[in-house]
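User: two proteins, same treatment. go.

Assistant:
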Amino acid sequence: MTLLEYLRKEMGMSQVQLSKKISVNPTAITQIERGNRKSWPKLRKQLSQVFGVDENLLFDSDGWPRKINVDF
């Protein structure tokens, strides 16, 4: 799981709600959360602002989402 997905779920937000909030296609959120594509700089900034965290916490220097281990 990526930290992005974890934070989104903790806020009770769907991928569609998040995508509308930052005006991107929901597919982009899905692909980034799954680690299938990296994020572009503008999107990294928008996502970090939505979650109130530094973008370096959400993404590595190349724009790939950071993965975390979460036990449910």
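Protein 2:
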Amino acid sequence: MSVLDVRSVSKSFGAIRALSEVSFTVAAGEVVGLMGDNGAGKSTMVKLIAGNFPPSDGEIAVDGEVCHFHKPIEARGAGIEVVYQDLALADNLTAAQNVFLGREMKKGLWPFRVLDKQAMINRSAKLFAELKSETRPRDLVKKMSGGQRQAVAIARTRLSNAKLVLMDEPTAAISVRQVAEVLELIRRLKSQSVSVMLISHRMPDVFAVCDRIIVMRRGSKVADKATENTSPEEITGLITGAIRDA
């Protein structure tokens, strides 16, 4: 059974049709690339899956059960987490504090409950170890590399044992070494049977870690191909429209 089923989904904003009858699946432990030029509908699709707003038509199912998300917390409850391009991290806080931001662990009895800082540090350390990241729980985020910041954002998704992690341009504007770290983090999620949907403009990254590549153009899906059965040249043609479909 697929972790995610997008079934004939369309989305309109007034007279503007952002998505038109898009269908695809994501299997457990599969890494799927979502590619397309600006305005292709990638961001709208991610926001639908993440629960920012519902589709105009069609349906989204998680583990075979149709879901009607109206806000992100509902999607999170179904096992869908998002790592946005800006990561939404607080620079003045530590890695552990960022991992648990909004989900803090507490100890004691009400009304005398206090933050359990050590428990959060220990849990964060375990998550970073699982991801094989060198990120340390007590380090301030503002002193971290791009790859370490991604590790913090991804560790946060592991608190809820996410089934699917949507990653929006995770390798944009970071160094070559940090790109390698992020791609390894994606492989770690895959090894733990977590599905990943990678939204990216970087062709080498997509071909390095993705099992399949979905290409969108002008709100429609124009290709859904196994990575081993396509090439960067074909995907580029599909994105630009030089190749109509495949």
